[in-house]
Design a protein that fits this description.
This protein has about 375 residues and is mainly alpha-helical. It contains 14 helices and no strands. Helix 12 packs antiparallel against helix 13. The relative contact order is 0.08. About 5% of the residues have low confidence.
């Protein structure tokens, strides 16, 4: 182990510096959040800008002008699409969520009455002592559900900082995004010229890992979330379920949470339908099961591919650990970060194997046998 560290001391120093940088970034996350969002948006928009820049006339001339024109066109298209979605979300989804949370006690009472009716037939078959315990458990469950919904409504978006620095960051986000996309190649060259020469190889390799794993996961998750939201909205609208926009939007958001996300989105839709239109609750369950079957069998293999190579048991453990450490952010980023770390560890192991193969012939040279006299 010590010899391996000596052979790869530069890589160890590089990873330690990267870890310190991530710790500082997390400590300043409230102020850096707008710029992180800007980097993600730049990462998503950059391929479109590069493609459009090559298509705009005149070719091989006025490169800066074509670059700026491509950025502005992509900006207008993105603002149009995002603006339309946000206006719909703000007008429809948020209003329905507000109505849903304001009437949460009434809906919880309806849900508990329905559960109580289902439990009555089951309780009749139990001994009297167990019947009392079941009734108490149902009553406690109702109180806990009401408390959870109230806390969610009160602090669901508390992870967004309200500091002056964060507000200034969001105000500067459009300009930051413009300059990042416009001067991406120059910024990349400047970064590589600033870092020590012996770290350039590791920086490029680890950046490639981040692009394939973390970047691929972000793109795939956004696409899957959008498809699930659209399919859920269409199905809920056909069934005429109340609060269909909010429930579909929530299902698309929870798609970002691996393994348990679909259960959360479908569970909320079931509970809301059970309280507002109980005769359609079973149909909603069938709808979300169908959406998940289509997603898992047709969409995930084609869109998400093999970005996350983590066992489901480890996924559940990481989700709980991430929620404990960083709340909602920990739930969202714990799995892609763990997958990225696993790929980096594999990269270190591969480097170590290469060093061992290079040193093996030098350490175990062939010794000619001594010629003994006959």
């Amino acid at each position: 182990m010590i010899q391996a560290l000596k052979n790869n001391w530069r890589l160890v120093v590089f990873l330690a510096a990267a870890f310190i940088f991530l710790v500082l970034a997390w400590a300043w996350r409230g102020v850096l959040l707008p710029f992180v969002i800007g980097l993600i948006l730049a990462y998503l928009m950059l391929p479109g800008v590069n493609w459009l820049e090559k298509k705009l006339p005149p070719k091989n001339k006025c490169q800066k002008a074509r670059r700026i024109a491509a950025i502005l066109i992509v900006f207008v298209i993105t603002i149009g699409i995002v603006g339309g979605i946000l206006s719909y979300v703000i007008i429809t989804v948020i209003q329905t969520f507000i109505d849903l949370f304001s009437r949460a006690p009434e809906y919880i009472s309806t849900i508990m009455d329905q559960i109580q009716q289902w439990a009555d037939s089951f309780q009749q078959q139990l001994p009297p002592g167990l019947q009392t315990q079941v009734e108490q458990m149902i009553a406690n469950l109702g109180l806990q559900m009401e408390s959870v919904l109230e806390n969610l409504a009160r602090g669901g978006f508390s992870f967004i900082s309200g500091t002056v620095g964060a507000l200034l960051g969001f105000a500067a986000l459009p300009l930051f995004l413009f300059y990042i996309i416009k001067d991406y190649s120059q910024i990349k060259r400047n970064i590589y010229s600033f870092i020590p020469e012996w770290t350039i190889e590791h920086t490029r390799n680890i950046t490639s890992i981040l692009d394939k794993v973390l970047g691929g996961y972000i793109k795939a998750t956004l696409v899957l979330g959008g498809i699930v939201a659209v399919m859920s909205f269409i199905g809920l609208s056909i069934l005429r379920v109340p609060y269909a926009p909010a429930l579909a939007f929530f299902a698309g958001i929870t798609e970002m949470i691996p393994t348990i996300g679909p259960w959360i989105g479908g569970g909320l839709a079931f509970l809301v339908t059970l309280s507002t239109a109980p005769e359609k609750a079973i149909l909603v369950v069938v709808l979300f099961i169908g959406v998940q079957l289509v997603e898992n069998n047709l969409l995930v293999p084609r869109i998400q591919g093999g970005y996350m190579r983590i066992h489901p048991a480890a996924v559940l453990m990481l989700l709980v650990l991430g929620a404990h450490i960083a709340g909602i952010w920990g739930i969202i980023i714990s799995i892609p970060i763990a997958a990225t770390v696993a790929r980096i560890v594999q990269y270190i192991r591969d480097r170590r194997a290469v060093h061992q193969k290079e040193e093996l012939p030098q350490e175990t040279g062939v010794v000619e046998p001594e010629n003994k006299p006959a």
